[in-house]
Amino acid sequence: MTKELLRIDDLHAWYGESHILHGVNLTVNEGEVVTLLGRNGAGRTTTLRAIVGMTGARKGSIRINGEEALKLAPHKVARLGVGYCPEERGIFASLSAEENLMLPPTIAPGGMSIDEIYAMFPNLKERASSPGTRLSGGEQQMLAVARILRTGARLLLLDEISEGLAPVIVQKLAEMILALKAKGYTIVLVEQNFRFAAPLADRFYVMEHGRIVEKFDAAQLDAKMPVLHELLGV
Predict the structure, then answer these.
(1) How far is residue 81's CA from residue 75's CA, in Å, rounded to a whole number?
(2) Residues 6 or more apart in contact with residue 150 via CB below 8 angstroms
(3) How far, in Å, CA of 48 to CA of 60, rounded?
(4) How far apart are CA 215 and CA 51, in angstroms?
(5) Fold of 32-54+79-232
(6) For the chain, what are the domain ranges?
(7) For the chain, what is the mean pLDDT?
(8) pLDDT tens-digit series, residues 94-132
(9) Per residue in 1-11, pLDDT tens?
(10) Contacts with 143 (C-beta within 8 Å, 6 or more apart), sequence order
(11) Any bridge partners for residue 83, and if so which?
């Protein structure tokens, strides 16, 4: 039986006076990979930021593992087992790769050990003592994701992790997502790179102007391509 891990109902969010999300509804079941598609400015990143309490005013409902999280501070949302990997990665230049990896606190039991992380990301083991900004873009992205895995988070919100990276690195990230799914992680992907996201996702939501305008599962992808072409230009 599928277990609902994240449920968003009628979510509105603002940055200052700007009303960005206009009644978003979506669900994510435990162990799923769900992708939010949409053009730039559609509200996808704001949806992730709203889940973790990093926008301005919000109204509606965000339930994580059955618990209402709309009024919680970001650090309390994290303790519900949520890991957010923002587009800007947030790697500290003055710290080594391993120091960056060790930085976030443990939020829940069951996080990956350093050995498990290095088995999944051998590049990071090789670069453990390198300053954060000496890492390539792909290594920085792997580090940003690996840092979350150590904390015990089981719901991963990943924002544009393939952006600007070489195809060989993007392929490695795809393999990482499939490996995490096999370990029972639940993943919400915001992606512009449709060719990267399409084979990974169980279900898709398409956003436009701060609303969900389409939702479908992987089996319907081929049938939905004309609509996606119109909405996204893919």
Answers:
(1) 10
(2) 101, 102, 104, 106, 111, 112, 113, 114, 117
(3) 15
(4) 19
(5) Rossmann fold (3.40.50)
(6) 32-54+79-232
(7) 93
(8) 899 999 999 888 888 889 999 999 999 999 999 999 998
(9) 789 999 999 99
(10) 89, 91, 97, 100, 101, 121, 124, 132, 135
(11) 156
* 111 three-class SS: coil
| Per-residue confidence (pLDDT) for residue 234, from 0 to 100 | 59
What distance, in Å, lies between the first and last C-alpha atoms of the chain?
34
Distance CA 185, CA 190 (A): 16
Percent of the chain with pLDDT over 90: 79
Query: Taking CA 211 as the corner, what is the angle to CA 209 and CA 213, rounded to the nearest 5 degrees?
Result: 100
**Amino acid identity of 83?**
G
DSSP annotation string for 79-104: TTTEEEE-TT----TTSBHHHHHH-S
pLDDT digits (tens, 9 = 90+) for 168-183: 999 999 999 999 999 9
Three-state DSSP class for residue 186? strand
